[in-house]
Fold these 2 entries.
Entry 1:
Amino acid sequence: MLPLDPERAARLDTLIEDLDPATLLWISGYTAGLAAERARSGARSGFLAQSLVQPVAPHAPATRATPASPVTVIYGSQTGNGRRVAERLGRGLEASGLQATVVSAADYSPKQLAQERFVYLVASTHGDGDPPDDARALFEFLTSRRAPRLPSLAYAVLALGDSSYPRFCHTGRVLDERLAELGARRLFARVDCDVDLEPKAAPWIDQAVGAARGELGTEAPRLAIVTPLRPTAAPLASRDQPLEVELLANHRITARNADRDVRHVELAIPDERFDYEPGDAIGVFVENPIAAVERIVELTALDPASQVTVDGSTHSLRSWLTSRREIARIARPLVERLAERSGDRQLAGWLAPESATELRRAFSQLQVADLLRHFPAAWDPEALVRALHPLAPRLYSAASSRRQVGGEAHLTVAVIDYRHDGERRVGPASWQISIASPGARLRAFVEPNARFRVPTDGSRDIIMIGPGTGVAPFRGFVQQRVADGARGRNWLIYGGRHRERDFLYQAEWQETLKRRQLHRLDVAFSRDQADKVYVQHRIREHGRELFAWLEKGTSVYVCGDAERMAPDVHAALIEVIATHGARSAEDAADYLNGLAQVKRYARDVY
Amino acid sequence: MTELSAVEKIKAESRGLRGTLVDSLADPATGGLAESDTQLLRLHGSYQQDDRDIREQRRLQKLEPLWRFMVRLRLPGGVCTPAQWLAIDALARAHANGSLRLTTRQTFQLHGIAKGDLKPTLAALNAALVDTVATCGDVNRNVVASSNPVESPAHAEVAEWARRLSEHLLPRTRAYHEIWLDGEKLTGTPEVEPIYGNTYLPRKFKTAIAIPPSNDVDVFANDLGFIAIVEDGRLAGFNLTVGGGLGATHGDAATYPRLADVAGFLTPDRLLAVAEAVLTTQRDFGDRTNRKHARLKYTIADRGLAWFVAEVERRAECKLEPARPFAFTSNGDRFGWLRGFDGRWHRTLRIPAGRIVDRFDLPWLTGFREIAKVHTGDFRITPNQNAIIAGVDASARQAIDELISRFRLDATEHLSPLRRDALACVALPTCPLAMAEAERYLPQLLSRVEALLERHAISHVPLSLRITGCPNGCARPYLAEIGLIGKAAGRYNLHLGGDARGQRLAVLHRENLDEAAFLAELDGLLRAFASERADEERFGDFLWRTGRIRGPARA
Ligand code: SRM
Ligand SMILES: Cc1cc2nc3c(=O)[nH]c(=O)nc-3n(C[C@H](O)[C@H](O)[C@H](O)COP(=O)(O)OP(=O)(O)OC[C@H]3O[C@@H](n4cnc5c(N)ncnc54)[C@H](O)[C@@H]3O)c2cc1C
Ligand SMILES: Cc1cc2nc3c(=O)[nH]c(=O)nc-3n(C[C@H](O)[C@H](O)[C@H](O)COP(=O)(O)O)c2cc1C
Ligand code: SF4
């Protein structure tokens, strides 16, 4: 029978009536925490009044007027690394009894910084030194004149980046310096993480927890860790717990004479642990191709059987190179070691700050084998392994909706396979996926991207800008909208080289157009006419309509190449808003940031 | 009444064949046209096709079919000036697949033109004073006329009638100029079609003029035909023929090839009036509900020749005289040099399956180009897919001969009669209706049949073999001594017993045979032919005489 007397039961009912499931789940976690706390201390009162506890949930709820808890962890993250670090910090703080609010910069109103006392900032860098989309507003607010003085704020920054980019950890660095300028107190020096972030992120988390305890330890009320129950019983397959999935189909979807081999790949998803949404990416772990490994061994003249111990684990060199280290993608440490060992001038030159851009270009053209070949040097197995980044999984946008394809996940994979100085080079992941035949098994996981979703309100229109493989998630979007019976219009802007060769899913788009499931399709094929035409040209061309759509509450999505396409499209959108919305460039930029804030301008670029 | 066929609706709503062609051509998301526009495009002289060799591959690639366009020129009587040849040749190399295709109706087809190149192609043709108006679709098609031009002044006269007839029966809509030649846009209501009306004809309509003794045009395969009656060197007039047509559908007895009836005689001054009367009668009485039953041949078969002639006489306001005697000796071409009545020379070149393309050992496309550069007469395309270099002065012959041998254009002249006279339709990979190979298979097929002829020592005997990829009969196989009609990949129906004069239909002998099977069948018949042949007897006549084939008795 019920442990409550009727009168309390009634009060509880009125309390919880018309609360949404998420809140109810949170309350369950909160009360669970309370129970533990009271069992320990016998305390009677809750502490909701003095502060609202934020559950450590992947998607933190919206902003609040007053600081929630003594410590706020704000993250700016595009592909989830920063978010994961921030969440770990949050758990760490609470494990040591400190209330922490972990929030995406997108859900955090910058003005509120003035009320904060204690903030940890985790920020990655994207584009060409740009903030991740969710942190754009925060970044621009802080770097603008409008930013308030922050004398009473104490903070520390963890910057995430990739040393192969010219502006390494730029966002984190700027924020760190700017906060100091604004009078905030830097708790301890900023830490910059490279792609292989663990070695630096883990110590930083400890340091951050330590600092917080040192400063707040006493005054902060102890409390139990709030662990809300997740809606789904089984957790999603993740980086740390990938699942084996079976490959069902693998077709080339570019014409014979196309410049690029692009594959449509269908995976069988086992169960709800693989419940992806359109907008999410599917992560895939692969090993390096044998031939590539052999080539490294050959070039370094090292014994592949030799045992190498790094970070406490011991494997043969071959096993390190095959399944534990990047041997296609070049890492800055490799260039540094190579410069030392080969004493080569050119390499030393590359490492100079001013030639960062060249280095970046080299990284995008060369593989490890190319470097080792062009700059011969004496290596020992351990040094080599240390110079290489850990082998990372590759992400591929889900190109389908479960509502339509049931127990499948579809991917659209552009195959990297080219020759450099007469030697064949392939992209480990894309190439191995391209040669996998039905029945093959892949270690994969779901990489959620809550910022890249079809509008919950199906009556809203959407504009999807996705040239090349950037179109992949939009195939999923349209499938989803059709399955949902969404009444809003779908406008796709696609781009490629030749209509007849690389118009990905052309036949399907034509079908959806016929069925009025796609309402507008604009295409730009760069090499079908004398002058090169790209999606941003179409955006300008149809600026009037596009702005009209925006004014009607349309959401805009951009997916695909980050190096050139995304910035050009961004600029084109601002231009369109300025021209047809009769605004200054600045106001147009604000308009667009505004859209990003309310998740009506979302990008998934790589 | 059963409802009109879909195409009728499209024509009626097309605003004088405009439809949404302009938008379709501009649509960058597809290499094709909107469904309805593909129908209208035909009346502008072009067909949307795709490369069937890679159709399935592209389906798997989730790409649309590789849409390309075939363009068919309007060349009354098959006459083409050297300047025009050079222009057409340039287009074949610039926009098409690098080949010229001479058709069984005396004109050129260009294949493999991308949507974006269609307008430049038609504009360039127009600049060279050639058009493509009404070479396809439900109108009067390219008017064919016996190609051997100038045996008498009468022949030249006939060629001229072919041109005037073609002009007279042209649609009047300005849509063509508007869409392809940037003529000024239609404002208000579309122009009226004096002869056609706004729904044109129920079906394609074909006109031919034959000059005995040559029936190279196969006049009896045409909806409307005129047999020139030349009396002591003068053109006295024409015998009118009506209701011919060959197209049929496998397994549909209601469709069949039909030879035209000879309806009577008329003098040249009546030609246009009578032609128009035949056309408008079909316009008003042809079946617009079922396209498989819409050709004039069915209208006449259903209502009777007497009724039809009466109706035509009423509309033309003249009586037809009794038909005059005529005699055809052949529906093939005569090769080599022939001397015309005016002392000028004509050289007919054999072009297997009408395909002129540069093969590295046979650079024919270049060869013709080089000849066109120096030639002062004109070219004639024959209804047997061959080309005539016509009107060469005796003095210029040698120069032409040198070019002919330099580019090996005579390579096929010394071949067996079989090879010289065989016809094959285009079929795969461009023809959407093909069920089996034809043009691409012809060389191998001929080698196999030649082997049989050699085995029975009759390689020297003329033998007409025609093959098509489907029962539509584009290479007129129903009129051949041996007709192979595609049924499925590698399988054909074997038709036998046409005469070589285009006056007797071949009959279906065996169905759905693969190569081995029809070769075995032919082997037996040819063996018998070799041993029992009456002198100068042709294979088709032999088969009927000896009762090896049976069917509706024919002359
Ligand atoms: C090129 C040519 C064959 C050749 O190898 O030369 C040809 C090629 C085609 N014919 Fe034909 N026909 C050609 C002479 C003929 C003839 C022979 C003649 O007219 O002397 C016939 C039989 C006579 C007749 O009309 O009955 C012929 C009866 C057809 C038919 C069947 C018509 C019928 O009443 O059933 C079709 C299909 C249709 O119209 O529905 C057809 C349709 C076609 C099409 C356009 C296929 C299509 O409708 O999409 C073929 C294009 C293939 C390609 O890729 O080029 N073609 N077609 C000839 C072009 C003639 C010209 O220059 O206008
Ligand atoms: C969120 C997200 C979503 C993504 N979605 C998709 C998707 O939907 N479809 C998709 O195809 N990819 C997608 N990607 C990219 C994908 O994750 C991989 O980066 C890509 O497949 C390359 O991985 P790889 O292992 O094949 O080759 P890599 O190991 O990345 O490349 C090997 C090396 O080859 C060199 N190289 C690469 N290309 C060239 C070239 N053209 N010329 C010369 N050298 C070259 C470079 O040095 C590169 O470091 C996405 C990425 C992210 C972050
Ligand atoms: C398209 C793209 C552009 C990037 N540009 C930069 C850059 O300019 N500077 C940098 O330091 N890191 C850059 N990075 C590396 C990311 O910052 C790094 O992967 C980080 O771990 C991502 O963290 P997140 O998942 O929280 O966004 C880029 C990464 C991507 C995918
Ligand atoms: S006969 Fe059939 S296959 Fe041959 S061209 Fe005509 S329609 Fe095509």
Entry 2:
Amino acid sequence: MHTEKLILPDIPNLHRIDIYEEQGGYQALRKALGMKPDEIIDEVKKSNLRGRGGACFPTGFKWTFMPKQSTKSKYLCANGDESEPGTFKDRAIFEFNPHLFIEGALIAAYAMGIQTIYVYIRGEYAKWIQLLQKAIDDAYAKNFIGKNVLNTGFCVEMYIHRGAGAYICGEESALMNSIEGDRGYPRIKPPFPAQYGLWGCPTTINNIETLANVPIILSKGWEWYSKIGAPKQPGTLLYGISGHVNKPGVYELPTGVLLTDLITTYAGGVPGNKKIKAIIPGGSSTMWLRGDELEGVKMDAESLKAVGTSIGTGGVIVMDEDTDIMKVLTRITHFYHHESCGQCTPCREGCGWMEKILNRFVQGEGALEDIDLLLDVADNIEGNTICALGDAAAWPVQSFIRKFRDEFERRVKKTPTIKKYIPPPHLVTIEV
Amino acid sequence: MLSEVNLKKFEDLKKRYPTTKALTLPLLWLIQEQDGWISQDSMKYAAELLQMPLSHVYGVVTFYTMFNTNPVGKYHIQICTNVSCQLRGSAEIVDQVCNRLHLKFGEMAKDNRFSINEVECLGSCGTAPMMQVNDDYYEDLTVEKVNHLLDKFSKK
Ligand SMILES: Cc1cc2nc3c(=O)[nH]c(=O)nc-3n(C[C@H](O)[C@H](O)[C@H](O)COP(=O)(O)O)c2cc1C
Ligand code: SF4
Ligand code: FES
């Protein structure tokens, strides 16, 4: 198995530009500036790089959506909103290898004919914003960013845009509205960002980790890169493991690593050697797996799809056998209710209803009919909203009901307190 | 009102965006970093600087949870209770902080030293449980660590 770390190698002080250059940094940018933009896009396409922001979209393919000729400005937004519960990988890039990301963003901009890059970072990451700003300043000073990059005539600016506490701003169209100075409301698609993005101009949005892969592909070649890990989603991944493991943290390993290996070999297993009750494989939005389903499951898009879930952000959350998982699901649902932007009724109301029903079960006040009611609400949110936050709220609930129905059943109150619906007194029923 | 230094910063930010409206978030950050919160008067002031209606500024301030529409304590403590922190004992941390400071979420101490709030995942799930105090993250928390920190903040 490929074990070399590409994104977060163990090199002391790699965040410093002198060390980064000593290690061959910014050579990929030099190489790229000597290539035709289309050749770069082709290289990325052939590498099979897929987005690390959650949706696994093929990156090179996304870049071809950008119009070649455009009378308008074009923009690149690097998505560092990182607010999906269980996800904490992009911050490691800002801290330990910021220049790899910067270099990747610059290559992407050159390949798509873009002159302005906005790096959107969640507001709470004040420290990491400072670290990245320092790296950007150093790159400006070395003429890797600016009016005439390395005297090639390529002109590009890079600005950090600080968020202010809103999970929804990680959604690409909400992110653009937030940069434009508005509330972070997702937009209806189409039109897609490549046609009508920031200020109505062609725009591409990529995750921080996605862009950090680009210099590696350029310097090592697509053939080399595409052989690492799972063929359909190659490369290494920054897995984040949290919850009930002995050594939680970020682990860089190839895609397609065995989930059980990740938990046991790398993250040190479950404290007290307890059994695993459930895991969430890729951040809070992904479907749950039961502890007895993990054998042989690999961490890549295809394998996880085969067991009915998805790779998401690669943030694995582990729950041991003593966990009150109903409380966990309720907390996650509370999160989506809190973060819903409120534009779509199914998401705004539905998330609240789901939370309310789940709370009844947490308190042992649920009724048997509540299980189907909950599923009905979740099913009616899924697919009926402007953005995927609605789906993200529905999926955990749907999978939980499918896999842990007994958890509900044993919390059903013998004599339910739910009363028959009696209309309020001011409503008059008219007989016809 | 922004200080002269901050007003200069605001002017410098203009070259980054094609519209003035895009400066809404950067300007609100300048105001909050200077004053600690964003008052009604500050919102009016921001609207003038941006040449936007007050309703726009108000709408933005109230949408984003990090913008404080009320003053916060000298030490503004925010505790994550989301999934990974919940699994690693955030409830205990919450109890400890609340009991020691005699405060509930959303409250501020009478001497304005402390205020506390519950927050959603702050991207420290691998070092849970965690809390943020002003701009700083405190991770891998235990009750002892919390006590130690609160002792420190009470003296300073
Ligand atoms: C509710 C919601 C939140 C999201 N949050 C993030 C985020 O924090 N970071 C991120 O990179 N992508 C996030 N995404 C995905 C983005 O919309 C987008 O697909 C991604 O940034 C594209 O980058 P990629 O193709 O490089 O993966 C989110 C999507 C949704 C629906
Ligand atoms: S699905 Fe939810 S978060 Fe997304 S646009 Fe609709 S209301 Fe807003
Ligand atoms: S769940 Fe608390 S920091 Fe992520």
